[in-house]
Each structure stands twice: as C-alpha cells, then as structure tokens.
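> run fold Serotonin N-acetyltransferase
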Amino acid sequence: MSALSALPFLKPVHLRPPRSSPGGQRRHTLPASEFRCLGPEDAVSVFEIEREAFISVSGDCPLHLDEIRHFLNLCPELSLGWFEEGRLVAFIIGSLWDQERLSQAALTLHKPQGSAVHIHVLAVHRTVRQQGKGSILMWRYLQHLRCLPSARRALLMCEPFLVPFYQKCGFQALGPCEVTVGDLAFVEMQHAVRGHAFMRRNSGC
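> ok
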C-alpha cells in the first residue's frame, strides 16, 4: 500500500519533475563524502598524496606506484579511501600477514591465509590535514576490518613520534620493529579486531 492511499484525507501531492541542466539533461551530483575500497584505477591519486606526505618528512614513500597497484590488485578489500565530491582526500592500504610480528618481507608480500592485517600506509591530502581526518579514517577502517572473517588483528610500524597518534586510535606498542628502511627505525603496534560474528549480523557486511 502506498503512503498516499493510506491517507485518504490528504490532498494529492504533485511532485515537481527533477531539475535539468540548461541542455535538458538531468544533473548528477557527486556525494559530499564517501568511504569505499580502492581499486587499481585509484593508484595514481593514492601515490600523489603519499609522495607529498612522506618524501618531505622521510625522503621516501612506504609504497611506490607499482607496489600500490600490486596491493590494490591483490587485496582491494584491505584498502579504504575517503572521497569528498569525488576527490580522494585520505586513504589506507593494507595486506594480510601470517606471522606474529612484521618482518622485512611484510613490506611487499600479501599472505592470503594470514589473519593479521598489515597497514602499510595512512596518508591525508595536504589541503585537509589538521582536521582529524586521519583518526576518523582509521576508525572507519577498523570497523571495516571487523566485517572481514579473516582479520583478527591489525599491525603497523611507525616512527616513534607517531606512537601517540596511533595509541589514541587504540593501538598498543609491541616494541621495536624488526623492519628498517635506510636509517629509519620503527615501533611496531597492534590493534585487536573483535566482534566478527556480531558485526556481520548487524552491519550488513
């Protein structure tokens, strides 16, 4: 039963036709804000944000363009991008890992049978930094992981000055990371991913 037929005392409602552009075509607008998994077609946009965010700080990127394409082909479900009006403004890329702690091989490998999600990189576009987008995106990403049956925990490595940021996101420091990149040393951090069955029943995942 339609809403109008259920309310006989209301006058009929005459809906206006959708507005059209001057050329007669219906105008389509992009969503103001959207979170979605990334694909290989997003690799260049990802790399541009990452390069600007990291090269000025450490002189190198966690992932190069071919590595970004590699992970977005193998495991796009372990990525998450934040788009505003169709433009990528922040992203996370991850892959699966099958050992307790990260090793040098974790930088380039995806282990499909693994239960740990290795978060390779989180980056925010320079024009929208200092707005809390990094922590919001991480929260959304961790919620997303709870919808994936294989994910039991999230691992990442970061420079010591970033430890407080990730602690606020719920990560715990595991100590020095085995992985080194040039002269850089890292702290390894972990976040438990819980509530798989409950989240799948109640979130539509």
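DSSP finds five helices and seven strands in the chain.
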